[in-house]
Write a sequence for this structure.
């Protein structure tokens, strides 16, 4: 077996014309597993990744470097009205380079919805389990020990315990983790079993060649076949095209750019599926609450996410569910995420190391009449899209409920003050004041909403008139184009998405290989 | 069908999505001209190493804005020491051209005396107002019923705070110790394949060394 190579932008000084069995666009959770499995089958594989090849040599645990190099739009991606900020990875390894390691198998109730509403018989717990078994072994996925959870997670754990709510310890993809707390900035010791340090190097050893800083701009297609992928090499410092072009002619093309960039590539290629590409995008909208404690929480230190609760994940018909976790809290992201005037923010930052932050992650896309998000091309933009998201009354009911429950949990765990992230923040001094949240403004741009999970936009389904790819992830009207990433999910998941995408990608590689 | 580069999408939109929302388009138009636009902005010293994307006028507006967004507090470094407006210029040099254009429009809308007169009877540019007047304008933007102004406040607030808190000189003031020493290895090997043996590390896999993976944990019903 001839080893492949990782080639970075500065090494590509003249136009390249490449031929291979499979061209994969994107190197995150979908693209990496697909590439490795196809290489093991003996296929020649070329990967294109618009982000850079950043490794632990650069991972100095500082926010400016991380946001500049590892996130889409420097961490500033958002819906058009800025009502929802979108944290999304952008480098070799994609989101897995910067996520917080939470690993869940797809819940059966979600797979049941896919089966019953979208005709997806191919993907089930039974079909994915053998893949998950292998993935969990390779990525050392295991429950994080209770005695190792940090003070920020302990607030959630204690609050859940005191209120008698369901709680669990998160399974994390780490190996020899030092419990540092910088997962979101790239792991400085390669303990996080991201695609960057595991499956991509495995794939390169198996023969895959990956071109970093190389942005796929358009797919050429003719009849029912994609004939070429046309890409541009980006300057490492400016992110602008250098003028050098890469053209890949492959027997099969796999698009794995994630739930925003994959629809973007298809739309630039005039592959619209009658407008369905970019529609029904799900974001797991996140509401946050800040709790102030007398003791130091130091929410920047230690494994960022190790406790969860699915107590409210299924709130019954007509109501949107949510699950609870906590994020890491570092100064730059904390100050920009907090709301209020400049003076209020500075005052809050004086209490920075005593702050707990809690997340309620909303399970969107389960109601048949939900529209979700829409991704469209933006005139004049290179890698910035027009993104809209339709909040419904069910969202606002759930957001208010979630913020009240988070406040309850924070007070139950000992918070002396709890603050919402409204434009005019609601400050609560005891649990008795929680109903003050009922009077807050529950509408877009009046309260901070964020997302770190992007799903849908190229949804799979049996019916070509209501979906973009078929239940084998093949683009309905083309014979040699597959989409393998979070964009194919017909709904959101109710759990952190990486392991679902890992499993689907490893499963899909079998029949993608047969299509070569 | 044959496709060619560049992709669909032509010249940059002058106003982009910021014009969406109540009066948004009209407001942005106010940012670009009018008699009261001829009122001068305050003059400030430019960074010694120059500006990358902002004009001197835009830089002056961001300087005034950063003074109000970053309230002076004991123990915290000042905006001048951290060159916050220069930091904004550097951040903006990396964003998409459409985002840069929209930020510039917002700055001019904030600065232009005409909208400031229409909304607050203040016939001055933002950068020449008293600090009390500037705070009042920012509060109006923050709480406005007009989506564009609230969106604009959020965007400019995020830019200025990011430019300030990206500095390690703010860490001591907020009780943030920064990265633990002795962890990051700036000389760590960077493996790219090409026939070179892959170094053994946490990411390499040795089946014999891997403990059996436990089954997914059952959740705890809570311990009241």
């Amino acid at each position: 077996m001839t080893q492949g190579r990782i080639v970075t932008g500065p090494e590509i000084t003249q136009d390249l014309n490449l031929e291979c069995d499979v061209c994969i666009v994107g190197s995150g959770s979908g693209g990496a597993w697909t590439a490795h499995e196809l290489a093991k089958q003996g296929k020649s594989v070329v990967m294109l990744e618009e982000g850079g090849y950043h490794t632990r040599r650069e991972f100095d645990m500082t926010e400016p470097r991380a946001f500049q190099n590892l996130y889409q739009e420097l961490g500033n991606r958002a819906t058009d009205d800025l009502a929802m900020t979108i944290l999304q990875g952008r480098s070799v390894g994609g989101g897995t380079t910067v996520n917080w390691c939470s690993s869940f198998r797809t819940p059966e109730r979600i797979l049941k919805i896919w089966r019953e509403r979208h005709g997806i018989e191919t993907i089930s717990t039974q079909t994915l389990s053998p893949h998950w078994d292998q993935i969990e072994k390779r990525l050392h996925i295991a429950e994080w020990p209770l005695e190792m959870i940090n003070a920020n997670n302990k607030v959630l754990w204690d609050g859940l315990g005191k209120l008698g709510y369901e709680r669990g310890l998160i399974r994390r993809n780490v190996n020899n983790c030092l419990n540092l707390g910088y997962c979101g900035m790239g792991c400085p010791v390669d303990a996080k079993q991201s695609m960057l340090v595991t499956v991509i190097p495995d794939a390169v050893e198996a023969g895959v060649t990956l071109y970093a800083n190389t942005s796929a701009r358009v797919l050429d297609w003719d009849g029912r076949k994609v004939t070429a992928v046309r890409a541009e090499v980006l300057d490492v410092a400016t992110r602008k095209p250098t003028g050098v072009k890469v053209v890949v002619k492959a027997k099969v093309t796999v698009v794995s750019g994630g739930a925003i960039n994959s629809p973007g590539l298809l739309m630039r290629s005039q592959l619209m599926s009658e407008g369905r590409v970019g529609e029904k995008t799900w974001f797991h909208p996140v509401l946050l609450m800040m709790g102030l404690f007398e003791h130091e929480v130091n929410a920047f230190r230690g494994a960022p996410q190790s406790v969860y609760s699915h107590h409210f994940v299924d709130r019954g018909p007509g109501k949107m569910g949510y699950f609870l976790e906590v994020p890491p809290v570092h100064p730059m992201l904390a100050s920009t995420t907090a709301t209020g005037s400049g003076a209020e923010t500075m005052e809050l930052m004086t209490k920075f190391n005593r702050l707990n932050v809690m997340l309620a992650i909303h399970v969107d896309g389960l109601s048949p009449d939900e529209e979700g998000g829409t991704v469209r091309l933006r005139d004049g933009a290179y890698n910035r899209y027009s993104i809209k998201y339709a909040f419904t009354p069910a969202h606002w009911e759930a957001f208010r409920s979630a913020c009240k429950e988070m406040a309850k949990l924070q007070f139950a765990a000992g918070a002396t003050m709890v603050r919402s992230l409204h434009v005019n923040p609601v400050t609560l001094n005891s649990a008795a004041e929680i109903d003050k949240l009922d009077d807050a403004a529950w509408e877009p741009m009046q309260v901070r909403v964020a997302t770190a999970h992007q799903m849908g936009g190229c949804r799979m389904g049996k019916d070509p008139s209501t979906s973009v790819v078929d239940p084998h992830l093949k683009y309905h009207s083309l014979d040699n184009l597959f989409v393998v990433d979070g964009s194919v999910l017909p709904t959101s998941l109710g759990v952190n998405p990486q392991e679902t995408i890992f499993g689907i990608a490893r499963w899909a590689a079998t029949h993608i290989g047969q299509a070569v | 069908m044959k496709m060619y580069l560049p992709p669909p999408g032509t010249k940059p939109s002058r106003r982009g999505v910021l014009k969406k929302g109540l009066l948004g388009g009209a407001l942005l138009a106010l940012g670009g001209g009018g008699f009261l636009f001829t009122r001068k902005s305050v003059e400030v010293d430019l960074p010694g190493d120059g500006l990358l994307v902002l004009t001197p006028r835009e830089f002056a507006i961001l300087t005034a804005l950063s003074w109000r967004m970053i309230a002076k507090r004991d123990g915290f470094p000042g905006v001048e020491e951290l060159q916050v407006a220069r930091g904004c210029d550097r951040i903006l040099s990396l964003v998409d051209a459409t985002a840069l254009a929209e930020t510039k429009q917002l700055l001019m809308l904030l600065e232009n005396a005409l909208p400031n007169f229409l909304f607050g009877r203040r016939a001055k540019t933002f950068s020449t107002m008293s600090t009390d007047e500037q705070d009042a304008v920012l509060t109006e933007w923050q709480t406005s019923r007009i989506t564009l102004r609230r969106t604009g406040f959020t965007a400019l607030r995020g830019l200025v705070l990011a430019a300030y808190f990206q500095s390690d000189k703010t860490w001591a003031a907020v009780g943030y110790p920064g990265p633990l020493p002795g962890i990051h290895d700036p000389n760590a090997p960077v493996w790219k394949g090409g026939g070179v043996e892959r170094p053994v590390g946490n990411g390499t896999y040795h089946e014999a060394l891997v403990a059996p993976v436990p089954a997914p944990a059952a959740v705890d019903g809570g311990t009241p």
